[in-house]
Design brief:
The protein has 332 residues and is of the alpha/beta class. Helix content is 37%, strand content 18%. The radius of gyration is 20 Å and the shape is globular.
Length: 332
């Protein structure tokens, strides 16, 4: 493919990335890794800055992964903005001590590089090697997207094998994905990155209505965007009821009420807004928690609780979450 010519090195094959990484090993340099599907926004750039601050070198990958899209999902229309992505990365700088760090390379593999046996969005017709994290892929987002995490775990394993990062950075918005990949690194005994260097960074949000930044936000119409902060506001309401001693049922009911009131206003403007789910899950097992388990978890500080949800605007599905925790065991 024809690529722009930015000042940042572009690694457009597995071989070139491995050569680059071998030099970093030889030079005893730490490597931070930010895997993305492109269409970069401020949320991605926050991850890049965190990596720049903590590592000698930072590599960003841009790869729209077919394996995590079901046949009916938006692979063909997923936003692809490579030229702008590279411009944003070139502009990033972080001052550390007496040095200025900027992204060291962009890994731009092709589909054939990542899936040498080929890839189909239909799981039943796929051939080759795939990775599943059993028992952790059917809850939360997995209920709506049953093959999603199989695709995520597979592509992450491949990217980790090529880049072999010292540390990797994910955003909290995709909390289940990030925690699942942290478990993957522990279960498969990855050295690069090891489980303690899979970092989850707080969600970047719109400063006005709190909407979680996402590449899919570009699909929202102007009228839909007016109501897009509803999900976060609903989750905040549920968290408030919960922390004030309410039950799970009361907390979720309060959140649903926020969504319903917003939906009524949205309908008047011709906006199709539909709640997918709002739920409370164990951050360790992803299992749905009932009131007794929630109270035990909170009182004994056994494990943080994930309060999450998904909301549809027409054909665009937005997700978000809040983690109720005292210590930074999940988000750090």
């Amino acid at each position: 493919m024809s690529l722009p010519s930015p000042s940042i090195p572009i690694l457009d094959s597995v071989a070139s990335c491995r050569t680059w990484r071998q030099k970093a090993f030889s030079d005893n340099k730490s490597v931070g890794f930010v895997p993305t599907m492109g269409a970069l926004h401020e949320g991605h750039l926050c991850l890049v800055r965190r990596s720049l601050a903590e590592n000698d070198l930072t590599v960003v990958s841009i790869f729209v992964n077919p394996a995590q899209f079901a046949p009916h999902e938006d692979l063909a229309t997923y936003p692809r903005t490579l030229s702008r992505d590279l411009e944003l990365l070139v502009a990033e700088e972080v001052h550390v001590a007496n040095a200025v760090r900027s992204p060291s390379a962009v890994f731009l593999p092709g589909v054939q590089d990542i899936y040498p046996s080929g890839i189909s969005q239909n799981v039943e017709s796929q051939r080759g090697t795939f990775v599943e994290v059993k028992g952790y892929s059917h809850q939360m987002e997995g209920k709506s997207r049953p093959t999603f995490f199989r695709g995520v775990a597979t592509v992450a394993t491949k990217l980790f094998n090529v880049v072999q990062p010292t540390s990797v950075y994910f955003g909290q918005k995709d909390i289940q994905q990030a925690l699942l990949l942290r478990k993957l690194c522990g279960d498969l005994l990855f050295a690069n990155p090891d489980v303690d260097h899979v970092h989850i960074v707080p969600t970047a949000r719109d400063p006005v209505d709190g909407l979680a930044l996402s590449s899919r936000n570009v699909f929202l119409s102007a009228d839909e965007r007016l109501f897009a902060g509803t999900l976060y506001q609903a989750l905040q309401c549920a968290e408030s009821v919960w922390t004030q001693g309410g039950t799970k049922a009361q907390s979720i009911s309060a959140a649903v009420t926020v969504v319903e009131r917003s939906r009524e206003k949205a309908t008047l403007k011709g906006v199709d807004m539909r709640l997918d789910y709002i739920e409370m899950n164990d951050s360790d097992t992803f299992e749905v928690l009932d009131d007794e388990a929630l109270k035990e978890s909170e009182l004994l500080k056994k494990t943080p609780v994930i309060l999450s949800g998904a909301l549809w605007f027409g054909q665009t599905r937005l997700i978000d979450n809040i983690v109720t925790e005292v210590h930074d065991t999940v988000v750090n």
